[in-house]
Design brief:
The protein is α/β, with parallel strands linked by helices. The protein is built from eleven helices and 13 strands. The strands form three sheets. The protein has a seven-stranded mixed β-sheet with strand order 2-8-7-6-5-3-4, with helices on both faces. β9 and β10 form a beta hairpin. The structure holds pyridoxal-5'-phosphate. The site of pyridoxal-5'-phosphate has 13 residues, from α3.
Length: 361
Amino acid sequence: MSFYEALLRPSLSSLRAYVPHPVPEGALRFDANESPWALSDDARRAVAEAVAAAPLHRYPDVRATRLRECVAAREGCHPDCLVFGAGSDEVIALIESALSRPREGADAAVIVSPTPGFVMYAVTAATLSLRHVGVALDADWQLDRAAMQRAVDAHRPSVIFLASPNNPTGAAFRDEDLDAVIVGAPESLVILDEAYGDFAAKNYRARFSETGHVGRLQTLSKVGFAAARCGWAVLPRGLASEVDKVRQPYNLSTLSQTVATLALTTLGAEVDAAIVRVQNERERLYKALQNIDGLRVDRSDANFLFVEAPAGEQLFTRLAARGLIVRSFHAQGGRMTHRLRITVGTPEENARLVEGLCASL
Ligand SMILES: *Cc1c(COP(=O)(O)O)cnc(C)c1O
């Protein structure tokens, strides 16, 4: 036995480091919910100029002042309500870490989120030795209010994460269900994860900006800037400054701050146009998949579609053999066995996907 085994956090034995599915060269990726479009040449030039002008010999601005101003204006919040991270993944970790004190009588703090859902809430909880409780969505992949309330009453979660639109199911949750969960958990922080909010018909900016125990999470990753690693939370102000204590001072590099700021200013129109194109392509792809015998596809408010296939794993393998990489959930079993998640691509990519699907079913 090596010396470190006795030293490792016990929860690590149940975790595996994240290894994405290998993507063969030339394959088309529909698996990561990124934007399918690279930046225009003009936008690249703007990025190049801004990066060239950045003081790379200095540490980054600890407060991300300029970015903070842009985001506060966009979110309609006070700048001090914001906590930034290298992607919203990091912000999730900061929140869970700051709120990790167990409730009286419990041996670990509890994180609740619906399942199927975004895995990082649970993975991060495990790395921090917190307890994650998943609450199954109902038959329509919507929130099961009664089950959520039972989980809240039984486990007294410190944080409840609700991604709306939800990943991997694609649909936004109903307003009345969100309200019910929020009202039913007055002693928990409820985080509305809006990673896909830009693709939905509505966002929660106005409704939940001043609610005492509700926060929101945003990222630039799904709208064209996955490589910039920039996400943020809008939190009740006092809580934001507590969560910020957990943050490494230089977690957002100068490059991230520079590119993220551009994305929200000079490049804003291009970003918005790409979002509209994704929304239009989503509708076209939805109709195309609906017409394929054997596939069932659900309505989506996000930049991907949630699909049921007769033999999910087999279809995934056949598509991969054709250089079409989608996300399969067969490993989760149960009602996820035959489910695939397909990110909306460019029109050309989507045409090849549809062709591949027809040939593989
Ligand atoms: C992709 C995703 C995120 C995290 O994205 P980052 O790249 O870390 O900003 C957060 N929540 C949901 C639901 C996601 O799908």
